[in-house]
Amino acid sequence: MSVDFISRLIGMVVFCIIGVFVGSDLGTITQVNQNPAIPLNLEQYTFTFGLVGALVGLILTPYLTTKPVRTLRSKLTRISAQSLFSSFVGLIAGLLTAALLAFPISLLPKPFGTFLPFIGVVVFGYLGITVFSMRSNDLFNVIGGFTGRGASNLPGTPVGDVNANWAENRTILLDTSVIIDGRIADIARTGFLPGSLLIPRFVLNELQYIADSSESLRRQRGRRGMEVLANLQKEPNIPVRISDIDVEGVREVDDKLVILARQLRCPVLTNDYNLNRVAELQGVTVLNINELANAVKSVLLPGELMNVRVIQDGKEANQGVGYMDDGTMVVVENGRDYMDRQIVVVVTKVLQTAAGRMIFARPEDGD
Known about the structure:
Structural class: alpha/beta
Strand content: 15-25%
Helix content: 55-70%
Largest sheet: 5 strands, parallel
Number of helices: 14
Order of helices and strands: HHHHHHHEHHEHHEHEHEHEEEEE
CATH superfamily of the largest domain: 5'-nuclease
Distance between the termini: 84 Å
CATH architecture of the largest domain: 3-Layer(aba) Sandwich
CATH class of the largest domain: Alpha Beta
């Protein structure tokens, strides 16, 4: 049985009992007054109000119990643990301040001494929560300074120890697309991703769903992602964690990743353009593998020489097309005469497009 159904049954019984008592009291009052306009007796009053109370409890109980609780849980899951802790500390500080001021305020003449202490509790509690939540990072830096985990700002701390501690404590969320892509394994082996790679259970479930797809291409991509994940777990220098952490009240995997990244205050590793844009709009740090690949491509200037193998015809007349080792397309003017040959070309223009980088060149001996 669901929680809603159980709450409806309990609410029906409770409101029915309340209705019985109310009906009994009204029936007694009516009989005492002997009002001839109301011909109901005590038993009819009791039965009618008890039935109405049971019906009201059956309908309204979820709106008074389970639904507010679910809404509150959904709101709390969107708030990071750091913000919750800071707000709790701020509430305690505000209540302590209000308690210290309650006695002198109560000595004020009436009516100020009566209601001002209560207003002070509300005001100082709210101010405490607001101030401490806004300065949560500073609060945790102070706590880290006392515990030794935030010693990066202290003089005399070895730089190597600080960097190692930062790398160990860093968490990077992985998206399904970046696991399927496969390049994450090679990047992680180079050591450019310090910290642990966190894979939530809902990402793993989506990967398994793709691997079990009826479409051959999707099934192959999903299985490749499973193999990449297995290879990552076998690497001793790459900490990979699979967590059952989830975000309630949200169904889409991308939305869960963004909310989880905000809660954990960690970046999301992906090559999904839509997820990239949504995460950036919500203030989440995104590590995009496609942007990394474009950033590390060879930088060539007009006039430089390079070797390229012409492998196909270009769109224009007498053009040839070759590719660099990183996949960058090289369009060679008058390159059709050098088909299937390795030649030296002179770069004439470098063009950055939405699809990537293109290089235009001409054969060196074509001058």
